UniProtKB/TrEMBL annotation:
One GO CC term, this protein: cleavage apparatus septin structure
The protein, known as: Cell division control protein 11
Ranges that cross the membrane: none
A Pfam family matched in the record: Septin
Xref: CDD domains: CDC_Septin
Coiled coil segments of this chain: none
Cited InterPro entries: G_SEPTIN_dom, P-loop_NTPase, Septin
GO terms assigned for molecular function: GTP binding
Highest rank taxon of the organism: Eukaryota
Keywords assigned by UniProt, alphabetized: Cell cycle, Cell division, Coiled coil, GTP-binding, Nucleotide-binding
Residues covered by the Septin-type G domain: 38-314
Biological process (GO), any one: mitotic cytokinesis
The family this protein is said to belong to: Belongs to the TRAFAC class TrmE-Era-EngA-EngB-Septin-like GTPase superfamily. Septin GTPase family.
Amino acid sequence: MFAHPTSPVVPGLQTDQFQNYSSYHARPGSHRWKNAKKGLQFTVMTVGCPGLGRTTFINTLCEKQVLPPPVYGNPDQAHEVQPMNFAPYNVDMEEDGIKIALTVIDTPGFGNGIDNEEHFKQIVQYIESRYEETLAEETRIKRNPKFKDNRVHALLYFITPTGHGLRELDIKLMKRVGNRVNVIPIVAKADSLTVDELAAFKKRVMEDIDNFRIPIYNFPYDPEEDDDEVVEESRELRNLLPFAVVGCDEEVNEADGSIVRVRTYPWGRVEVDNTEHCDFARLRFMLLNSHLSDLKEITHDILYENYRTEKLSDEQTSDGVTAEA
């Protein structure tokens, strides 16, 4: 089973820095925001097949019940394919003294059909529609000072823990959205695999990502310009991909008075925030602390700029063809 006490530790990884990821004394990340008083708008999209624990993960990430428990309908209608939709949830948070206006966009219904091509299109169109809103605002003569940046800064893709690598569905989705958003692959329900199985599965997933040239957020760094701390941190996080996560709403009071979020099994328990049990604490610290600013900057400076260039180039080409006609 999932023998956590004997879990291997990644060489050079100082796990204690992630244990108190929400502490005011957490080690400052290199990618820091500049205006603590104003706060930050940050948008995350979660995508994955039904039953992978997205609802529990989001509630665990926000440390409160943001998404309601799933409602199971009429069993007589269970065979009917439900359409995918986009469900945004807004959460005001504070991490390390910084106010974060977090928006989580869930995608219930994704991947529940035989042909999910339409789902791929809808997700890409949704992300691009947010870019279109920003582009339209930038081209206004008089801009709205209260304009809200609704662009998706990170897409968390939940991978089914099959143990056999990526499925065709996973490959197609990540390739379709990889040039529009920062894709962060996640192994859902990681406690369903043993330590050795999980390590082997992570390796297979990363091999598939390399072989199929799937663009993901791989913690970019520049050894010549970034300091040693930044380089080491990025390398450590890159070695953890895809992040193995476990979500849980259950809290247990320990003998020392601390409160621990755990999943209890007949053979033992999994502590969600224990870095020897899963990567949830590292992922949360990265998303809402150390790399939040970097994800926003890449979205604006690279992904959005690429979309903007393509959009304006297409418009100029269309205008030229119309003029010639």
